[in-house]
Design brief:
mainly alpha, Rhomboid-like fold, 68% helix
Length: 203
Amino acid sequence: MQGPPRRSESARSPTLETLVVFVAVFGAQSLVGLVSQSLATGLFVLAPPVEARPWTLLVSVYAHASVGHLVSNAAVLVLVGFAVERVTTRWRFHAFFATVGMAAGLAQVVVSGVVGPANAVLGASGAVFGLLGYLLAGNAVTGAVLRRLPLGERGRLALLVAFALGVTLLTARPGVALVAHFTGFVLGGLAGRAHLLRTGVET
């Protein structure tokens, strides 16, 4: 005898839920921008001093500067998100995405302020790079390769940082938050090596 049918996995997919949040936040940005672009910037963009508008630390992760910006982040999210969500829960996925995204955005603001004028930042690329780093560092193939290399733990960490730097430089172009990309990838890689999101049951 069978129980009641389960909801489809796609209906509970944190990747799809995140995409919905992207669209909803961008819609809210666009509506506010019709009234006042400066108000939209103040509500959705992470900019110094961060403590003046602390909510933007989270909101800016899901906000985007344009339709193209949203689509590019959404495309990479789809490529890596479905793979990562298979080894974790919805809430771990969302908590990881938000936490890494906030850390990456904050790093961009702080580091840019140290070397020059502090940058304002918005977008999910730091969080998406976190998922990418997790996927690459946390899979069995990567683990097997690293175990074969004559490296200690520090050597593996250095290799992760070097790889993160290489991946980050591939995205280099004017206006791109490279510090956020690098931070997200490193945090994701470290979490992947620790299997932080794994629940013990993979499907």
